[in-house]
Design brief:
Structural class: alpha+beta
Largest sheet: 2 strands, antiparallel
Distance between the termini: 68 Å
CATH class: Alpha Beta
Number of domains: 1
Strand content: 5-15%
Oligomer: single chain
Low-confidence stretches: none
Mean pLDDT: 88
Strand order of the largest sheet: 1-2
Amino acid sequence: MGQTPLVWVSPQRDHIHFYGAVNLRNGHEMALPMPEQTSETTAIFVDHLLACYPNQPILLIWDRASWHKRDAMRRLLKAHPRLEVVHFPPACPDLNPQEHVWSRARAAVSHNHVYSDFTRLKTVFLDYLSNTLFPFTWLSQYTPPILFEV
């Protein structure tokens, strides 16, 4: 009684960037933490996707982030013809299933939760992404049925 509560605050804002891709057929999320978002780190993530799906064509449905279009990604797309890219219309984050994954992960992991250190938060966030399925009806709503015959 009569004492002001103390709240510990980190003197700096730690941060990490997560790259993610959700498989729209099964809801599995592939996520990879990176120190920054650049064309080079995007290429590293896409190389990771290529390794995880070694024998399949991959359709990347992307927003229009500048790092998706720069040199490292242009070279990677040219070197791997099984990669196909389609861009979402500008300013349409609700169409992007990955944005819904990020929203669910933040709600489950970081909103109204306290972690003793940033490393623990990063680990819990990545574990949630890796161990949660994110089913979407997006494919059946927006894709012609003939594409499912493959």
